[in-house]
């Protein structure tokens, strides 16, 4: 096999493990999401760095359910600059700063019935834990997509002393090992081929699809995003505009609370 084939085989093995061991957790996560959407709330999704990719895949995305709401903070989501504006040094600093996660949430006008999916391979950094703790303190549900094998071997970087999987109501364990990168090449000391992002994105879609199925089982027809690059372009744009209008209605139907100023 080539290194590329080995890598893809490893991803398939890891996906099969999630399929075979995390079905109940994905179903439980979908019930939480369906509760939020059926109750006129939102399912927020968030991750820092590469965890943000899985959060972004929740909406707007072909086949995605209206009611998911990604939170994107460019200062801790964009690392491709490396140097200069929003560079790696800033990212390394910001995502470890306790209190920043709560500040982010103050801008999103949470209300009763909302929930959040937090994507974090390690599940130990301050911003992620800030958000998890804040949701729990408000009596709102937290879903974690994280690696328990990795997280359980490293210390929390939050004053709570908790890792994400220790705070969440439901944890979908990606099972990715501590090093993440999975392929070893003779003559190269460090492994290549990270797998955490591929698995997290797949889990994101699995939860989203399961949420749609859960809503249908309750007699509720979810509003679904439609692919515009097909033979139904006009219909797709019309349907997606209805989806966007529904999202705007849910956002508008919230009491404004000004951010806390100290």
Automatic annotation (TrEMBL):
The protein's matches in InterPro entries, at most eight in alphabetical order, are given as: SIS_dom, SIS_dom_sf, SIS_GmhA/DiaA_subfam
Q: Which Gene Ontology molecular function entries are recorded, alphabetically?
A: carbohydrate derivative binding
Q: Which SUPFAM superfamilies match?
A: SIS domain
Instruction: Give start and end of each SIS domain.
Output: 33-220
GO biological process per UniProt:
carbohydrate derivative metabolic process
Q: State the source organism's domain of life.
A: Bacteria
Q: What's the name of the protein?
A: SIS domain-containing protein
What is the species listed in this Swiss-Prot or TrEMBL entry? Ruicaihuangia caeni
